[in-house]
Amino acid sequence: MPSARTRIATIVGARPHFVKLLPLSRALRRSFDEIVIHTGQHYDFEMSRLFFDELELPEPARHLGVGSGPHGAQTGAMLARLEEALVEERPAAVIVLGDTNSTLAGALAAAKLGIPLAHVEAGVRGHNRREPEEQNRVVTDHLSDLLFVPTADGVAELSREGITRGVHRVGDVMLDALEMAAALTRDRASALGRLGLERGRYVLATFHRAANVDDATMLGRIADALAAVEDTVVFPVHPRTRVRLEQSGAASRFAGAPHVRMIEPVGYLDSLDLVRGARLVVTDSGGLQKECYLLGVPCVTADRQTAWVETVRDGWNVLVPPESGRLAEAVNTFKPRGQRGRHYGDGRASERIADILGRTLGAS
C-alpha cells in the first residue's frame, strides 16, 4: 500500500457527490492523504454546507466558487480553476464522481496535466447523447485510467465502446452511503414527525433537471400533474426550480391544490426519511431513482430514459415523460411488479476502490 503521504484529489460539486463522499472519503483516508476540491457547482452555499455538516464530511481543501451558468461557461471556469489547483496540490491521482459538469471539468483537467484519473460510477449510460449528463459520462470514461463500475451492465456498456483496460466492477458507492447513513439517523428525529406525515400516505416529488424546469411548458405540465395526484404531495423545491415556478407562472397551478406541500430543500438524512416513508416517489433525479430501488420504494421517473436500467427492468421504476400527459395517472396507479435484484453490490464498493487505487499507485 502507498504511504500516508500519497495524495489523492477528489473533485466534488453537487449533491450526489457529497453523498458518495460519505463512504468514499472514509475508505480513502485510511491509506491516502485525500484532499477534497469543491468546484462550487452546487452554488447555494447553505444547501452545500448542510450536506457537509450533517454527513460529517471532510472540509474541502479548496472551494473554487464557480457557481451557476450555461454549461460551456460553467465547465470552462471549472477547468481553469481546477487546473490551477491541481498544479499547486500535485496529487498522485484525481477521482471524479458521477456525471456532472464538475465531473467533466475534473476529468479534462487531470487528463491535460497527465495525472492518473479514476472515475467512480463509470459505465453508466442512458443512451441519449443530447443529455448533458450522458455527454459528461462518455467523455469522462474515455479519458479515465481507472473505471470503477457499479453494475454488470456498466461493464458491458464500456466493452461495447472499446473500453476494457482499467475497468473494475466494484459495486455502487450509493449503497455504501445508505448503509452508513443508517447509523447517522439512529438517534435523530424523523422528518416525517416534524412535517406531520403518515408513513405510506404521501408522495414525494423532486424536480431539478434543466429540460424539465427551464422549459415553461414542461414545468406547467409537471405542476398540473402534481395538482392531479390523489395523495398528499411533499415537494422539496430546489432554489432554481422555485424561481422557475414563479417566473413561468406554473406555481399558480397549485392554488387549488392544497394537498401539494412545497417545502424548503432538505438534507440527505431528511431526504432518506422522506423516501422511506413515501408510498411512491416521482422525480427526475437519477440518484433518487436508485435510492428508491435500494430502499424498496416505487418510483415514477419523469423522463424518456434512465441510466439505471436495472430499476426499470425489475419493475420498480417506470419512465413517464412529462409531456405525455400520463404523469399523474402513473403516480396514482403504479405498483411494483417484480423482485429487486442485487445489481449494486454488497455495500463495500468504497473499500474496493481504495484497495485498487492503493495497488495501482503502489506499482507505479
Structure in words:
The structure is a single chain. The chain has 364 residues and is an alpha/beta fold. Helix content is 46%, strand content 15%. A seven-stranded parallel β-sheet has the order 3-2-1-4-5-6-7, with helices on both faces. α1 (15-28) packs across α7, α1 packs across α16 and α3 packs across α4 (101-113). The termini are close together. The mean pLDDT is 92.
Give me the secondary-structure topology.
Layout: E1 7-12, H1 15-28, E2 33-38, H2 45-54, E3 62-63, H3 71-89, E4 93-97, H4 101-113, E5 117-120, H5 132-143, E6 146-149, H6 152-160, E7 167-169, H7 173-184, H8 191-195, E8 202-206, H9 210-213, H10 216-227, E9 232-236, H11 239-248, E10 260-263, H12 268-277, E11 280-283, H13 286-295, E12 299-301, H14 309-313, E13 317-319, H15 327-333, H16 349-363
Parallel strand pairs: 1-2, 1-4, 2-3, 4-5, 5-6, 6-7, 8-9, 8-11, 9-10, 11-12, 12-13
Helix pairs in contact: 1-7, 1-16, 3-4, 4-5
Question: Can you summarize this structure?
Answer:
This protein is α/β, with parallel strands linked by helices.
List the keywords:
364 residues, single chain, alpha/beta, Rossmann fold, 2 domains, seven-stranded parallel beta sheet, globular, six-stranded parallel beta sheet, 13 strands
- Sheet of most strands: 7 strands, parallel
Low-confidence stretches: none
Distance between termini?
Answer: 11 Å
Helix fraction, binned, reads 40-55%
CATH fold label of the largest domain: Rossmann fold
Count of separate DSSP helical elements: 16
User: How do the helices and strands follow one another from N- to C-terminus?
Assistant: EHEHEHEHEHEHEHHEHHEHEHEHEHEHH
Number of strands: 13
Shape: globular
Give the overall pLDDT as a whole number.
92
**CATH homologous superfamily of the largest domain - what is it?**
Glycogen Phosphorylase B
Strand content: 5-15%
Number of domain modules = 2
CATH architecture of the largest domain: 3-Layer(aba) Sandwich
Q: What is the CATH class name of the largest domain? A: Alpha Beta
Helix-strand category: alpha/beta
